[in-house]
């Protein structure tokens, strides 16, 4: 019975996922339309400062920008399903190709950052609860409050100056190695760690009030056995949701950290597109980031249901 209800819930989530992605694609199309920027004019002005209106109109017709709204929307939807996000204004290459070139570096960076977040969050939150009210718990509370307020790009500059300039343990310029990702991944992970620790700690403390915890303690289980045995698993859904949201959000907000460490990832590409007013690259990058955000949240919801049966019943 539980398997059937879980299957129905999973089907509902997948249908909701499809509807949200369709909405995201529509918003991406509207972004191209209502930015107030004419791609045809930008293309022509890059070739000649003294471009005429006739030249701009010719490019507009070539790109299909003068077509009716419905026709342009249908063409855009078809293009997205074919993997065609348009042609970048800056380098005349397909936007999807530019994004696929930039994505691996960002994926490696975010993957390492979220590895630090996962390990640090689970260990620190559990120890903080076990040693509640002690020196470790109070120290972590102060560090987390300060860490939440620290901007990633500022921490990136501090780490770069300290460990690549003053103490040259790492290289200033990204060389594609995993070692070169340590500093930028820590600078991206630290604020997320601090938030995740506070959320998971609060979730564990809330679970400790449950009846099954009282029963486990009555049977003689120690505090650490109760926390690591059952409580942590039941407290994880809240942390998993935060983890997934920030993991997806970092794809779009990694620009400043990537710029500091000269990592030519998706965030760096999006920033360059904004500087050059490349509407096709901007809308394509935002579309990819938004789809990833939706996918990560859906995956977190499904994973929480698998790890924690109680969460599945509430969902």
Describe the structure.
- By secondary structure, the protein is mainly alpha-helical.
- The protein has 2 domains: 2-81; 95-314, MetI-like (MetI-like fold), CATH 1.10.3720.10.
- It has 14 helices and no strands.
Structure, briefly:
This protein has 14 helices and no strands. It is mainly α.
**CATH superfamily placement of the largest domain:** MetI-like
Which fold name fills CATH's third level, the topology of the largest domain?
A: MetI-like fold
Mean pLDDT equals 81
Using the coordinates above, name the CATH class of the largest domain: Mainly Alpha
What structural class do helix, strand and pairing data support? mainly alpha
Tell me roughly what share of residues is in helical segments. over 70%
Tag the structure with descriptive keywords.
mainly alpha
């Amino acid at each position: 019975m539980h398997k059937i209800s879980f299957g129905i819930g999973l089907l509902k989530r997948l249908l909701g996922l499809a509807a949200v992605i369709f909405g995201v694609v529509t918003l991406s199309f509207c972004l191209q339309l209502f930015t107030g920027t004419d791609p045809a004019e930008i293309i022509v002005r890059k070739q000649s400062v003294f471009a005429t209106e006739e030249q701009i109109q010719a490019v507009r017709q070539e790109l299909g920008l003068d077509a009716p709204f419905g026709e342009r929307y249908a063409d855009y939807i078809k293009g997205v399903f074919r993997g065609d996000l348009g042609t970048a204004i800056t380098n005349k290459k397909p936007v999807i190709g530019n994004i696929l070139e930039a994505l691996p570096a960002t994926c490696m960076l975010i993957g390492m950052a979220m590895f630090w977040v996962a390990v640090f969050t689970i260990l620190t939150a559990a120890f903080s609860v076990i040693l509640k009210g002690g020196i470790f718990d109070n120290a972590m509370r102060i560090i987390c409050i300060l860490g939440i307020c620290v901007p990633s790009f500022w921490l990136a500059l501090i780490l770069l100056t300290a460990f690549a300039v003053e103490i040259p343990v790492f290289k200033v310029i990204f060389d594609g190695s995993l070692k070169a990702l340590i500093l930028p991944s820590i600078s991206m992970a630290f604020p997320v760690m601090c938030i995740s620790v506070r959320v998971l700690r609060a979730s564990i403390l809330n679970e400790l009030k449950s009846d099954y915890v009282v029963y486990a303690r009555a049977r003689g289980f120690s505090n650490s056995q109760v926390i690591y045995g059952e409580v942590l698993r039941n407290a994880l859904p809240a942390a998993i949701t935060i983890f997934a949201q920030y993991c997806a959000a970092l794809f779009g907000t990694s620009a400043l950290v990537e710029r500091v460490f000269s990592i030519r990832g998706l965030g760096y590409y999006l920033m360059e597109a904004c500087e050059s007013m490349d509407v096709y690259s901007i809308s394509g990058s935002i579309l990819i980031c938004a789809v990833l955000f939706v996918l990560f949240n859906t995956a977190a919801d499904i994973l929480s249901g698998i790890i924690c049966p109680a969460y599945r019943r509430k969902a």
